[in-house]
Amino acid sequence: MTTYLETYCTISDIQLVAPFVFDYDRKRTISNWASYSGSGNSTIYQAGSVGKFSQLFANDIELTSVGSTGAIDADGKYYFDEDADVVYYRPTSTNNPNFDEAVTAGRDNKTLFDEFISRSSDFARTYINKPIYKNKGVGTGDSLGRDFPEVIVRATALLAASMAIMPYDVERGLELQNQVYDPSTNLGLLDMIRTGVISLDQDEDGRDKIVKEVSINGSTTGAIVDTFGYPKVSFDRIKVIISTAGTFAAGSTSTVEYSSYVGTDAGLKMSLVENGKIIDGGLQHIGHGVYVRFSTGVYTLNDEWEVEVSGLEHTSGGGINTIQLRRR
What we know:
19 strands; single chain; alpha+beta; 5-stranded mixed sheet; elongated; 18% helix
């Protein structure tokens, strides 16, 4: 499934806020191995009732998965029959996996923590109920040059760490989680963003405009960094695309142009609204009464963003004691 939604932190960010987190890698020991076939150096062992997993390890080293027992033709290969819930494994030399190796099952560490990051990013997006834009473009980044505001990076990293720890140590997991959101105090980082105690640079009026990157060239350094306006449509996905490439810089005449497309009765992104408009750094119209601001930087031909807009009334999360109202 294709998604244009961003993740807000990295595994290194998780290590920074919770250096102990990788002690909780969710591997489980596989025991009760029995001989299945072969002998000596070529003995294949089997173990049942192992439960679903995606990677087998021996002494924390990833082993090689194959598609059948017949393909286990070398040490370190295994086959997992998911339907039968049985794993077959050929250990090194004459090792017996019951005694000579610590065989565990689970998931590749990077894959596991990438999922924690994705889930935490999705939660943060939904919980604060405000758009989160990149710190992208010349002169717009933070002191470390990261893509997103530090408070968002830190909150997402803490939440990812709490997800990893919670099944094993609830108290420690909750301690991390409460730094991110705490319904009893509203003093978590995301709580304070949602209630306005902590402000994001692009704070405006909720989730009626969401910017997503569709296709951005690796050489591009510019981006949409702000939105403005109340959408005059119940729902649409506006296409914004670079129609003339170039560098947009302060003190120089801009040659970069964008075009935008809105939906029609025939489908989304069908009707041209703005055609070859020069990017000038101000708020520029893209359709339905919505405006965007481009940062300075390099733009490449066919860089594309999607701006999801909704003119329906929102009651965005302002915490227990507040609610955002909109005057029509």
